[in-house]
Amino acid sequence: MMEQALAGKMTSLVTELGDLGVFIGMFLESSVVPIPSEVIIVGAGAIGVPVISIMIFGSIGATLGSIVGYALGRYAAMPVILKYGRFILIKPHHIAKAEAFAKKYGGYSVLIGRVLPIVPFKVFSIAAGITRIPFPVFITCTLIGVVPRIFLLSTFGMALVKYTTPSLLAVAGIIAIVAAVKVAHKFYENGKDKTRKKA
């Protein structure tokens, strides 16, 4: 319920502020606020915000917002994160899985987590801070990972309204993302199994 209400407010914000609304929405989404990034980016594309603007402002907002999660993971006590995580829809098993994933794949976990919406990216940001992935690596992988996803989602939003040829490309991109999510999920399950065996 809270997530839906926030999504509605973000949609209104993007409609009213355009580029700036995309920046604010993605900053909040990537930090600690439970907002689906798909709502922000697809919505921006649908109302006519230029794709290049969505990519620039969305990528910068998402990258800066992710620093909040990284700082929480690196400097906040784990009991605090687990205690208050429920308020931002983060559950203990989310943190545990993302942490195991980050330990196994390092900076690549940030890249994969940003491109593929398996769990909210803020969880990966927190896990990156907990596992002390070098900050430059974290920022670089976040920025690289967010660009193609924003491009696909914004193009999809634009195509929903125009019904032009890009719609086919956008749909193909979304299908590719869904397929990649399944692959990444297997990575998760394998990582979880190995963690259990070690325990």
Description:
This protein has 199 residues and is mainly α. The chain has one domain (2-198). The chain is built from ten helices and no strands. The chain has helices spanning 2-17, 19-30, 37-46, 51-75, 78-84, 92-105, 107-115, 121-130, 135-162, 166-198. The model has no long low-confidence stretch (mean pLDDT 75).
Sum up the structure in keywords.
199 residues; mainly alpha; 10 helices; 0% strand
Secondary-structure-based class equals: mainly alpha
Q: What is the N-to-C order of secondary-structure elements (H for helix, E for strand)?
A: HHHHHHHHHH
* First-last Cα distance: 37 Å
Q: Indicate how many domains the architecture comprises.
A: 1
Shape: globular
Rounded average pLDDT: 75
How many DSSP helices?
A: 10
Q: What would you report as the Rg, rounded to the nearest angstrom?
A: 17 Å
How much helical structure, as a percent, in the residues?
Answer: over 70%
| Beta strand count | 0
For the biggest sheet, the summary is: none
**What is the beta-strand fraction?**
under 5%
What low-confidence regions span 5 or more consecutive residues with pLDDT below 50?
none
